[in-house]
Amino acid sequence: MRETYGKLLPGMNLSGLAGRLIVIEGTDGAGRSTQISLLKSWLEEQGHAVLDTGMTRSPLAGEGIRRAKEGNNLGRVTQSLFYATDFIDRLENEIAPALRAGFVVLTDRYIYSLMARAIVRGVDPAWIRSIYSVALKPDAVFYLRLGLDQLIPRVVFSRGFDYWESGMDLNPAHDMYESFCSYQHALLDEFDRLSSEFSFDTVDGSPDAQEVFSVLQSRVLDVLERSAPKAYPFKHLTQTAERLVQNIPPRIISASPQVATRDFELAFQPLAAKPPHKNGNGNGHSNGNGNAHSNGNANGSSFTLPTPDAPDAPPHDET
């Protein structure tokens, strides 16, 4: 059964959450969204149902967060509570139902980014941890790590510096570039500490996207292979089919292909489709003929199937 980090949401049932919860973590510009997109397409090609989710996608709080961040006066406690509302709404109404349905859930960031951001902004660590103690423990956390020297060019040549991702709310009088470096350095330190505490699987995020994707493919496969049968249905069905084959009687396996096929079809033929018992003809159930089921037939078997190509006996003339 799944576990949380300490608390349980009211009405949350942890049994039957057979899917896989896979987290992609990392700072801004680490390539998380690219890898989520590549993993989702690949997993769906493998036959898995996939849900991808991420911060500010909650119908309840997502739009409110975006509107609040349009200004520059969002306090650290209010911001933390906004993000907590967004996360818990998605946990209850998206993540848990998808896991119960056997989906692979890919989440772009999880509680670790939310805790790191809050702690760097001076929020009490014990308080923020208490809020996110309702979170489900994931099956894997892949941390795409980039050093500050690698991170800066990616941000500069992609979308530029963002007010909040640069930590300008902490350093309003500083140059945005200097603020970005200071804030991201603090975030990286906090991520490294959380990585040790929560056993992140660290992936070097500096190579090109395809190389990083190849590494993630291999590690995600390892996670899926550790899944229970309910979360890995095709493997479970294959094992069931193998057990059925092992139970086929040896006489069917050793028979000619035609006889084996006939016996197999008859063994699984619905009772309603079986021909009625006949008396007195070569194909029916009777006593004293060579092809029928009897106590004294030449083969000495209590159950002898008719020859596949034997013609039906001609009907009796009625006078």
- Mean pLDDT equals 82
Number of strands: 5
- State the order of secondary-structure elements, H for helix, E for strand: EHEHHEHHEHHEHHHH
Q: Write the CATH homologous superfamily of the largest domain.
A: P-loop containing nucleotide triphosphate hydrolases
Number of helices: 11
What helical percentage do the residues reach?
Answer: 40-55%
Percentage of residues in DSSP E strands: 5-15%
Cα gyration radius (Å): 32 Å
Low-confidence stretches: 271-308, 310-319
Give me the side-by-side strand order of the main sheet. Answer: 2-3-1-4-5
Q: Which CATH architecture of the largest domain is right?
A: 3-Layer(aba) Sandwich
Shape by Cα distribution: globular
C-alpha termini separation: 75 Å
Largest sheet: number of strands, sense, barrel closure: 5 strands, parallel
- By secondary-structure content and strand pairing, the structural class works out as alpha/beta
CATH topology of the largest domain: Rossmann fold
Quickly name the level 1 CATH class of the largest domain: Alpha Beta
